[in-house]
Amino acid sequence: MSVALPPPRMSDPAVFGRVAVLMGGTGSERAVSLDSGRGVLAALRARGIDAEAVDGIPALVEALVQRRCDRVFNILHGQRGGGEDGIVQGLMDAFAVPYTGSGVLGSALSMDKIRTKQVWLSLGLPTPGYARLRKGDDVHAAARTLGLPVIVKPSQEGSSVGVSRVFDDAGLDAAVELAARYPGELLMERLVEGDELTVGVLAVGEALYALPSIQIVPRGDWYDYEAKYLSDDTEYRCPGASGEAEAEIGALALRAFAAAGCAGWGRVDFMRDRASGAFHLLEVNTAPGMTSHSLVPKAARQAGMDMEELCWRILETAL
To answer: Is 107 helix (H, G, I), strand (E, B) or coil?
Structure first.
């Protein structure tokens, strides 16, 4: 399957000027971000782009003050020292330096899974029922209201950090204890039993395009941190749906991405209910992984783009 993307808008690498590849940072996803950043840096340099690695926000501030970069390829993951919560986007806006990915609003909103769900629900977009948990809330009562099984996770982390699947009341306290190690509120979400899928989104000019969907089939029970970044046993089926279902999930991904105020590129994650076949939105990633195990590069290959072309196209969104 291929996606009918227009050709790249630029052919001369000099048009990008000096590019800072922002990676690493001090967030919980530092290791993944460094791995992603190394891949992006190699791809840009292979295309003749003048790119340098910048590790974390203080190093970016130094580069901006010294005018060492003309634009930023942001592959910094997560929040609080990461690059997906809107803070670093505000910094780059203040210096009037263009960057890849979503701006302040889309980044901040998408980092908060609870408020993203509130926006989607207000627009009638499908997402699993949830409870917002503050410190001291009765998690057992919340689970009874939603109905077990449930997912418990930090509302502002990525890469499956702090996430637990809970199938009985006895497992709730340990799940909450794990999720509470991370900043922010907790999200309890009805567990949709079925297939996990994801759709990459890429802007070309003013238009958004959905890349082929991917169905994720981990060897274990679910797609946890190990299955995402460490295991070679996870199976990726691309496209993950077929016919009308593939068109449906692509269109839903674009609607969800735009509704969250996102731009440039990203990834929208779904569950597909095994019984009904219905798609349910989980979250938007505004700086998805770009490692050897990552999903957007896999979908791009299915659409006929290698890593170098994908990174070039993402960088074009910062022109």
So the answer is: helix
Concerning whether 159 is annotated as a catalytic residue, the answer is yes
Strands 18-23 and 50-55: parallel
3-class DSSP state for residue 115?
helix
Q: How far is Cα 254 from Cα 175, in angstroms, rounded to an integer?
A: 32
Pairwise CA distance, residues 215 & 217, whole Å: 6
pTM, 2 dp:
0.91
Digit-coded pLDDT (tens) for 261-276: 999 999 999 999 999 9
Element (H, E) at 119: helix 113-122
- Domains annotated for the chain, with CATH where assigned, are 13-100 (3.40.50.20), 110-126+193-316 (3.30.470.20), 130-190 (3.30.1490.20)
Residue from 33, 155, 159, 213 carrying the catalytic annotation: 159
CA nearest neighbour of 182 among 75, 79, 57 = 79
Closest by Cα among 77, 73, 83, 65 to 19: 73
Catalytic residue check, 160: no
Residue 246 annotated as catalytic = no
